[in-house]
Amino acid sequence: AESMDSLGSGRGVYGPIHADLIQSNYLIHRGAVHLIYFADLGLGHYLYDLAVTIYGLWGLDPRQEQRKALLE
């Protein structure tokens, strides 16, 4: 809770998030990412979406190519 609180709640770090950005919930078409399935949509830290996506790649991206591309 302290770590999350330290992120703050300003518009640059907190707002609407998908909250379930795993590979089965986004599509890539012509180089653009499109989100689908918004059942967990809510308010939260944007960093949460990034963490969920990286965690979702665990075991699926042994050379970490997707992880590196996402972070770039």
Topology (elements, then pairings):
Elements: H1 2-6, E1 14-17, E2 26-29, E3 32-35, E4 42-45, H2 46-56, H3 65-71
Structure in words:
The protein has 72 residues and is of the alpha+beta class. The protein has helices spanning 2-6, 46-56, 65-71; strands at 14-17, 26-29, 32-35, 42-45. A hairpin with a 2-residue loop joins strand 2 (26-29) and strand 3 (32-35).
If strands are numbered along the chain, what order do they take across the biggest sheet?
A: 1-4
- Taking pLDDT < 50 over at least 5 consecutive residues as the criterion, the unreliable ranges are none
Supply Rg: 13 Å
Order of helices and strands: HEEEEHH
Number of contiguous helices: 3
Based on Cα principal axes, name the global outline.
globular
Class based on secondary structure composition and strand pairing: alpha+beta
Main β sheet profile: 2 strands, antiparallel
Compute the average pLDDT: 93
Strand content: 15-25%
In helices, the fraction of residues equals 25-40%
Distance from first to last alpha carbon? 28 Å
Total number of β-strand segments? 4
State the main characteristics.
alpha+beta; single chain; 32% helix; 72 residues; two-stranded antiparallel sheet
Summarize the structure.
With 72 residues, the chain is α+β, with helices and mostly antiparallel strands. Helix content is 32%, strand content 22%.
